[in-house]
Amino acid sequence: MKDIILNFNDKISKRPVFGFFSKTTDPAFIECMGHAGLDFVILDMEHGPNNLLNLSNLIRASQLVNILPVVRIKEGDNNLISNVLDLGAGGVQIPHIKTKKDITTARQYSKFFPEGSRGMCRFVRAADYSATDQYEYFKNSNKTINIIQIEGKEGLENIDEIIDYGGFDILFIGPYDLSQSLGIPGKVDDPPVENAMKKITAKCAEKNITVGTFCDNTESAKKWINAGVRYISYSVDVGIFYAASKKIADELKKL
Alpha-carbon distance 220 to 234, whole Å? Predict the structure, then answer.
């Protein structure tokens, strides 16, 4: 995993990186993403059906095709942070960050001393079930990537404090939840949402902080790349599969 993380960091220092949100339980989908040339996958435990048992196989598939496995945990379940890292996740994405205290809590669960106080165990998949030297494992584990999600009015109101506080690697803006918190659910292209996202992105640029967001289409991806976003999550695997299936089905019915 160390090499995959280093490779990911090298890529994102040079260009935007791209991945899908994933709600599949099938590792074959993850392998396809890697073979297609994606840089990462976000294995979604907040809105997806996966549990820790089948998550381990999705992480294995990610490693097989050399893409970064990021796991989005459920809101408020900080124990999941160390759980998914024990399985070998290369990054953890924490939803609904509102204050710098939330960042502190996430860091405590995701990093070993001196950066945090994550529970120590070397008999886990991430340490090759103890085959890896424990001191090397504990050191390398602190290189995993922390991604915080800002997606509500409170997080938006505290954005200066959050940015100045730091303690994370990527700040991810969740446009759909942000639109809901601003009273216009789903209208992610409306001015209040776009302006808030551009404000966050500009503030992060001043501090050299990497920004990510979710895009439904390539036009939206291009817009946010031009605005300075470098971690682009494009749609969701099951939605992409549906859209491709629907297009083929419609074309076949015309034959």
Answer: 9
Chain-centroid distance of CA 135 in Å reads: 27
- Domain membership of residue 191 as a residue range: 2-252
| Cβ(160)–Cβ(203) below 8 Å | yes
pTM of the predicted model as reported, rounded to 2 decimal places = 0.95
136 by Cβ neighbours in 10 Å (0-12 / 13-18 / 19+) ranks as: exposed
Q: What is the Cα–Cα distance from 43 to 45, expressed in whole angstroms?
A: 7
Alpha carbon distances (Å) from 62 to 9, 26, 39, 96, 206:
16, 12, 10, 25, 33
* Mean pLDDT to the nearest integer, 108-127: 96
Distance of alpha carbon 94 from alpha carbon 74, whole angstroms: 8
Which CATH number covers residue 130?
3.20.20.60
The count of structural domains within the chain is 1
Q: List residues bridging with 17 in a β-sheet.
A: 231
User: Residue 76 has what pLDDT?
Assistant: 82
Ramachandran class of 128: left when φ > 0, alpha when ψ lies in -120 to 50, beta otherwise: left
pLDDT tens-digit profile of 198-231? 999 999 999 999 999 999 999 999 999 999 999 9
